[in-house]
Amino acid sequence: MIYTSGIDIGSTYTKAVVIDAENTIVGRAMQPTGFKLAEVAERVHQMAVEEAGLAADDVRYVVATGFGRHQAQISDVQVTDLTAAARGTTLFFPATRTILDVGGQTMKASRLGDGAKVKSFRLNDKCAAGTGAFLEKTARYMGYTTEEIGPLVATSKEAIPISGVCAVFAESEVINHLSQGVAPADIMHGAIVSLVGRSVQLMKRVRMEPEFTLIGGILRFQRMVDVVREQLEAEVNVPDGDMVQFTSALGAAILGQHRLHKLADERRGAKDARATAPGA
Question: Which terminal Cβ of the chain has fewer Cβ within 10 Å, N or C?
């Protein structure tokens, strides 16, 4: 069996996925990225390999993606996170035409053409108010952890508007709401609505088309998904469970399988050419 690995070095978490030749996931792992990118890439890759019950040499090809992809010394090649996300997403949902990827420090929208090719994309990484970091900071202001965002917002009765276009101003609004006795759950709900509003604007800029698929760590919060669905007035796809965070790593591993097939075809072509050459 031929195994490949994809490593997604994100700004907040680094993920690794090992797949076989049938694109079946046999191992995966995730850890906070930190600042030693080469080390975390190797560590998470090894964790995924061990979960698969394999030895390091069993993995034939390693593809790195994410903002820190060029620091992954263990990789054979690097690809953009847009390309990797397109491959991973279309494995789950082949009819996907628009992807929204919301991570801790970046937000990306992309529109796909045939063959999971990226036709158009837009990034929003200039302000924390347009990324998952805004939700995390809002939660911390109110004394909650990132893991508590989902259960907290599930108790919300209404979304309190957060109008600030800058994370600093938005945080001032949060403090003001708290001083007025507004429920933290309703403030968090409002922060999600604010973030989704920016997400939808980004999707419009790529001339979004259905089907829509949502990925990225922030999309593991069900209320976030619900609000996107409401604002789009359309159904959306979301990978099951925590696979929403592993989609780009999976896509990188799939590209590794494609690369191995291409190399094998090139070797066969060269062999055939030598066999048919004059004097062979």
Answer: C
Token couple for 249 = 């790593």
CA atoms of 31 and 62, how far apart (whole Å): 18
Per-residue pLDDT at 195: 87
Structural domain for 189, as ranges: 94-237
| Cα separation, 97 vs 208, whole angstroms | 8
Beta-carbon neighbour count of residue 97 at 10 Å? 17
Task: State the residue for tokens 């090992």.
Answer: 18
Nearby residues of 277 by Cβ (< 8 Å), 6 or more positions away = none
With beta carbons less than 8 A apart as the criterion, state whether 33 and 9 touch.
yes
Q: Does residue 17 sit in the same domain as residue 100?
A: no
Q: Write out the two tokens for 40.
A: 């975390």
Question: Which residues are CB-contacts of 215 (< 8 A; sequence separation ≥ 6)?
Answer: 85, 88, 89, 99, 100, 101, 238, 239, 244, 245, 247, 248
Q: Which residues contact 191 (CB under 8 A, 6 or more apart)?
A: 134, 135, 138, 162, 170, 174
Q: The whole model's pTM is what?
A: 0.89
Average pLDDT over residues 219-228: 90
Residue 114 has which token pair? 């045939």
Handedness of CA 51, 52, 55, 57 (dihedral sign): negative
Q: Among 96, 92, 127, which Cα is nearest to 109's?
A: 96
Q: What pLDDT, in 10s, does the model give residues 116-157?
A: 999 999 987 555 555 777 888 888 888 898 889 989 999 999
Q: Does some domain include residue 114?
A: yes
Nearest to 68 by CA among 123, 25, 13: 13
**Is 98 in the same domain as 225?**
yes
Could you tell me the CATH number of the domain that includes residue 269?
A: 3.30.420.40
